[in-house]
Amino acid sequence: MLADLGLTAQEQPHGLMSAQRTSLPVLASGPGGKRFLLKYYLPLPEAAVLPPGAGPADFGRRESGFYRFLDSVDPHRRDFPAPRTIAYGPGDPPRWILLEWLPLAAGPAEEVIGQEHAIELLRKLAAMPTDRLIGRRSFPLEHWDPIAYLDQIRAMYDAVLFVVGEARWRGIQRFFGEAVRWTDGRKHVLVHGDFCENNIVVTEDGLPHLVDFECVGIGNRDHDFATFWIRCQRHPEWKRQLLGRWFGGQHGGDRIRAEWGIRAAVVHLALRRLRWGYLTHGEEDPRLSANLALLDAALDGGASFFPA
């Protein structure tokens, strides 16, 4: 396929892999040595554990749909920092997408990706218009908000009840009733869905970009921040400062709504981890205790979850 496109595979950078394991990114070069990134969508094995309600073709269809949306509203990526699209493969979803290669800044992520990069990208996401995303054909848009979280969590019932127990399950239902009350009516924003250091590319000129849109959707403005905050392995003081920057000057009801938005996203994330661990490892899930602790901390909130 690379030969048909006039491309040659290059040595692959460390860590170049889809987080969902649903696609294979390949660094390739064309005439004159110009580099490209080919994303080839992989068929999933029958035993693959998908998120509740997800189909095996949704990831490729969602990402290709989002890139086509970007091509229609921002083809030169002047407003939204993502790779430009070179070509799409055949099929629905396409078997592959060819993207421009973003030249990476040298150094480990903890030196290259700063707090200002994450905050800037989150602001860019929130500034994107979402009205033209809704109702697009062949685009299974994800919904990331407390009501959608609760729908997904109810679909996890059989897999997580044994792990969390009846009492905690009832507490989760009460928690989301309160979360919906505090967050209902907030404007939905564009949500990356897998916002983490692996999907942030800082180029040689110091500009941050986003890649891997297989989970893109709309919903809770705190979802991507919560995912990044929980998943990054930085020093606790670095994470505390990042949290302070995210809250900014929010006070009163706005601060409470933001806290509920973060907590709801983390409860959802913890339950997805528990479901995956149970379906994959059964009672021998090595991350069971850690994910239960994360779940309980998000349910409780307070100073133990939001350091001063």
Explain what the structure shows:
With 308 residues, this protein is α+β, with helices and mostly antiparallel strands. Helix content is 44%, strand content 13%. It contains nine helices and ten strands. The protein has helices at 58-73, 109-112, 115-127, 146-155, 157-183, 223-231, 236-247, 252-281, 288-300, and strands at 8-9, 23-29, 35-41, 85-88, 96-100, 142-144, 189-191, 200-202, 208-210, 217-219. Strands 1-2-3-5-4 form a five-stranded antiparallel β-sheet, with helices on one face. The longest helix has 30 residues, at 252-281. It is globular and about 60 Å long.
Beta-strand content estimate: 5-15%
Largest sheet: 5 strands, antiparallel
Alpha-beta content class: alpha+beta
Shape: globular
Total number of beta strands: 10
The tally of helices reads 9
What is the string of helix and strand elements?
EEEHEEHHEHHEEEEHHHH
Q: For the CA atoms, what is the radius of gyration?
A: 20 Å
Order of strands across the main sheet: 1-2-3-5-4
How confident is the prediction overall: mean pLDDT? 92
Proportion in helices: 40-55%
Distance between the termini: 54 Å
Unreliable residue stretches:
none
